[in-house]
Amino acid sequence: MRRAIARWQTWWARLFVLAIPAGVFLSIPSPWDLALIVVPFLLFLVRPPVSDRAPVELVPPVRGRWVALNSPGSAVPSHGVKAYGQMYAVDLLQPSDAAVSVGWGLRARRPESYPSFGQPVLAMAPGTVVRVRASQRDQGARNTWPLVVWMLTVEGFLRELAGASRVLGNHVIVQHDDGTCAAYAHLRRGSASVRAGQQVRAGQQLAQVGNTGNTSEPHLHVQLMDRAHPTAAAGLPMHWPDLVIDPAERNPRWTTGKPRPTAQPGFPANGQIFQVK
């Protein structure tokens, strides 16, 4: 029942937003006017049951040198929420030695200026492509305080109402032979090299890293789920055995202190730099 309700998360949010002016301006007898607002909001908060499945061993979705952020290696839920199957999701970007400053202007930095932009995104396991979205444009980075506030408030709210595809941006979802599903999000416009129904092998290129959806700068968001539909899915833990990690090498920009008790052992923590051969 919880999964069935959660599947319609976007529509509960839309009903809640519509119910506010309806309850205020229409002559609806109390307590029905309150219920009209409260019920959709409560249904919007319903999430699928949490999975207790052991970490699934997969091939890393990138090659080369990368840094982890919003990682289950630091805390679970890794992104602070269970929605959209993000329980064990991780964001990956290529570390840069360039100084990063957040200004006050309104001009966004071009996504092409980031080292992660355009990097190959690889399948973590063999399976069947079940969804490809590739038409959203790559936006400028949210690299100033006004743009960050815009992203976290108005833009984030509008994407929530628009649905999972606008939150994930351009994305590819692959269903593996064991029934699990991997979502690769924030992909570059037009970079998808696969189509729905296509069989893929582990390590095969699916697309390129972009800057689409709910993102502040180009990076890869990747997650494992027990369903192909993100709003109905429970997030699953991943394990990447083919990583070369130097515990002392970290990116200060993304390091967030010691992992919390909920952290997933063996997975790179926030700010941890790792190498994939």
Tally of helical segments: 5
Helix content range = 10-25%
Which architecture of the largest domain per CATH? Answer: Distorted Sandwich
CATH class of the largest domain: Mainly Beta
Shape: globular
How many domains make up the coordinates?
Answer: 2
CATH superfamily of the largest domain: Glucose Permease (Domain IIA)
Major sheet: size, sense and barrel closure?
10 strands, antiparallel
**Oligomeric organization of the protein chains:** single chain
Which stretches are low in confidence, meaning pLDDT under 50 for 5 or more residues running? Answer: none
* Share of residues in strands: 15-25%
* Average pLDDT, all residues: 92
- Rg over C-alpha atoms, rounded to the nearest angstrom: 19 Å
Distance N to C terminus? 43 Å
Number of strands: 14
Helix and strand run: HHHEEEEEHHEEEEEEEEE
Write a compact overview of the structure shown.
This protein has 277 residues and is an alpha+beta fold. It has two domains: 2-44, no CATH class; 56-276, Glucose Permease (Domain IIA) (Distorted Sandwich).
Task: Describe the model.
It is globular, with a radius of gyration of 19 Å. The protein is 21% helix and 22% strand. The N and C termini lie far apart (43 Å). It is an alpha+beta fold. Helix 2 runs antiparallel to helix 3. The strands form three sheets. Strands 2, 3, 5, 6, 7, 8, 10, 11, 13 and 14 form a ten-stranded antiparallel beta sheet that branches. Strands 1-12 form a two-stranded parallel sheet. The chain folds into two domains: 2-44, no CATH class; 56-276, Glucose Permease (Domain IIA) (Distorted Sandwich). It has helices spanning 2-7, 9-25, 32-44, 145-162, 164-168; strands spanning 56-57, 64-69, 90-93, 120-122, 127-133, 171-176, 181-185, 199-200, 205-208, 220-225, 235-236, 238-239, 243-250, 272-276. It has five helices and 14 strands. Its EC number is 3.4.-.-. It comes from Micromonospora zhanjiangensis.
